[in-house]
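Please decode residue identities from the backbone states below.
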């Protein structure tokens, strides 16, 4: 089947992303062209050449395609079901990129389901935590797959408020989408990142506005946050939060759901992060999200360039 036949076979299907399949032929995705795609913007600063990469919830494969184009050695795309398999196959051929796909079912116990894959230098966990019953269960399964010193991008809807809390999507008050359950408060998201032995080194925040009507609720101080996290270890990490350290050593939940042996046996990644030095803090301490959540340099309510949106063009390399 030539490219024109391939394009015709999927062009009128439902697409999550807007994808250019040929000159003048672009699929119609879910979001407006002005809606920022923060994980993509963060991915651009992660040095992926010769790295092993994992993408969770890949849909048609926009992020895996960009991982491949940025020189990753191995890219694994995943989703609960192969519901976008045909479109993903077309994208892979049209964009001449090489990545694998794995159906993983519900996004729990991924450390078990993907154990044969070894470890990853980079993991993208974006647009997932608000779709699952148990966000901590998901993090516990994924964290052992990250190499020491590796990077994970965690992106999810958050409430811009103090305190460690989860907001339940009661009566669809946050979003009418039926698979949306939780919004984390921004401080809670940071605490979970640190509990699973990572530190935030950079983040961007997109406040919910009428630009994207799917998640805008007037008067609600919410938004979408994308955090770059560095895997950390050692006595300094354990001493930073004695309760978390004891919990990781003795909690039945942590010991049963987060494979400490796999985590400890991971090799050390050489992946680097090259974001703007004025915005990032690549140290063992990391940064504290609420200190700069309202910094205009971190707030991205809208974008004007397609390379920062959920639109993938044939010429895009990142």
């Amino acid at each position: 089947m030539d490219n024109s036949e391939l394009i015709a076979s999927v062009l009128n299907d439902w697409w999550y992303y807007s994808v250019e399949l040929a000159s003048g032929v672009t699929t119609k995705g879910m979001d407006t062209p002005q809606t920022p795609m923060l994980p993509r913007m963060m991915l651009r600063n992660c040095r992926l050449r010769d790295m092993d990469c994992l993408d969770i919830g890949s849909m048609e494969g926009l992020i895996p395609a960009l991982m491949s184009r940025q020189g990753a050695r191995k890219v694994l795309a995943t989703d609960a079901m192969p519901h976008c398999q045909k479109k993903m196959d077309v994208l892979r051929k049209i964009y001449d990129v090489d990545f694998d796909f794995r159906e993983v079912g519900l996004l729990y116990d991924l450390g078990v389901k993907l154990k044969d894959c070894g470890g990853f230098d980079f993991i993208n966990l974006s647009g997932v935590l608000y779709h699952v019953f148990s966000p901590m269960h998901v993090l516990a399964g994924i964290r052992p797959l990250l190499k020491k010193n590796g990077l994970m991008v965690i992106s999810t809807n958050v409430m811009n408020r103090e305190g460690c809390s989860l907001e339940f999507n009661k009566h669809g008050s946050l979003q009418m989408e039926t698979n949306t359950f939780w919004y984390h408060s921004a401080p809670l998201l940071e605490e979970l990142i640190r509990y699973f032995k990572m530190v935030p080194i950079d983040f961007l925040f997109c406040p919910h506005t009428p630009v994207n009507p799917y998640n805008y609720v007037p008067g609600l101080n919410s938004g979408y946050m994308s955090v770059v996290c560095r895997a950390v270890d050692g006595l300094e990490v354990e001493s930073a939060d004695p309760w978390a350290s004891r919990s990781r050593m003795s909690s039945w939940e942590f010991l049963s759901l987060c494979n400490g042996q796999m985590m400890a046996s991971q090799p050390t990644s050489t992946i680097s992060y090259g974001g703007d030095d004025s915005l990032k803090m690549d140290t063992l301490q990391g940064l504290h999200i609420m200190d700069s959540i309202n910094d205009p340099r971190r707030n991205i309510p809208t974008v004007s360039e397609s390379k920062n949106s959920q639109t993938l063009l044939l010429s895009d390399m990142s």
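Observation: Residues 31-57+107-303 form a domain with the Rossmann fold fold (CATH 3.40.50).
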